[in-house]
Amino acid sequence: MRAPDFWFSDNPLARLLEPVGQIVGGITARRALKTPLVRADVPVICVGNLTTGGTGKTPVVASIVRRLADQGQTPAVVMRGYGGSLKGPVRVDARTHTVDDVGDEALLHTRRGAVWVSRERARAAGPAIAAGAGVLVMDDGHQHSSLAKDLSLIVIDGRTGFGNGRLFPAGPLREPIRGGLARAQAAVIMGEDRLGIAKDLSEYLPVLSARLVPGPERMKLKGQRVVAFAGIGDPEKFYHTLREIGARVNAFHPFDDHYSFDVADIQPILDEAFAIGAIPVTTEKDAVRLEPDQRQQVDVLSVDVEWDRPETLDALLDKIISGNKI
Q: With 0-12 CB in 10 A as exposed, 13-18 as middle and 19+ as buried, what is 170?
């Protein structure tokens, strides 16, 4: 789903839904505070958020996995496999598993290393370690306590922050802010900090700053006419990224996050692009949900994470890798 406009303002609908949000938030908070069922034999890093929707969490996971691998570690991603049917635990194989099996984000992570999917994340720890994982990196899971975490990072969108500060469905929050921050060891603000979030959070925990930067495909798209589509947490981010790299966006088609594309959804977009001599383009996450024939006809713009002070992140990682828990 895409975030409704009322999540980012104080309005009657948000106030009307607030009692429901208090109930949902209370349940989530109590679940998150339960004693972890499993403590793994290797360090566990959790990258999560306090809000629904796209904050840049998955690219942050990919960046951490790459940094750990560059340091000689053997990381494995552990995740629920949102949108997939397999309960797990199962190691994801991009050659045999589909989006319907394990979800789009799990397939995306396989490009960078081992990925394990399990509805109960703790159940994936043992098999992942037995297969050689020396560090487990959780994509999401801050609100779930089945697997003990050694380092929890909260990713926050610098443009939207915590929205109207209300709990779902009255606002974007999964749980109360204070309780969620109390279980984290650091926050990551993605993009320009337009709301002064770093200043507000610095008294609670260390704050890292990072941004999404477009991949090398940007050179091909610069100056070109494109027809774009995206089914991510915040599709407008993709639109603005295309504009920033100099692409001429003739049309943009947003879809809900994790939207299950049908051939009939994409063919009109391809026809529109080819009719005007434009390049059809989408995100990496969306590309894995396309049918193979249509995927070959669409260009993909990847993104990477650029850290303002990467040494700060490395220091956090080094501390848990060396056995000094945070």
A: buried
Query: Average pLDDT per run of 10 along the chain, which is 326 residues long?
Result: 77 83 76 77 96 88 96 95 92 95 94 94 95 96 90 95 91 91 95 92 90 95 97 90 96 93 96 97 95 95 95 93 72
Sheet with 303-307, side-by-side order of all strands: 90-91, 114-117, 75-79, 135-139, 44-48, 151-157, 186-190, 207-214, 303-307
Q: Write down the pTM of the prediction.
A: 0.90
Q: Within 10 A of 86 (CB to CB), how many other CB atoms are there?
A: 17
- Domains in the chain: boundaries: 5-212+306-321, 216-301
Degrees to nearest 5, angle at CA 310 with 162 and 198: 30
Tokens of 91: 């190691």
C-alpha distances in Å from residue 280, one per residue of 16, 68, 225, 288, 324: 41, 34, 9, 15, 48
Alpha-carbon torsion, ordered 105, 232, 58, 193, to 10 deg: 180
Contact 105, 58 (CB under 8 A): yes
114-117 and 90-91 as β-strands: parallel, antiparallel, unpaired?
A: antiparallel
What's the distance, Cα to Cα, between the start and end of the chain in Å? 35
Please, are residues 38 and 146 in contact by the beta-carbon 8 Å criterion?
yes
Domain 5-212+306-321 belongs in CATH node 3.40.1620: no
* Interatomic CA distance for residues 15 and 113, integer angstroms: 44
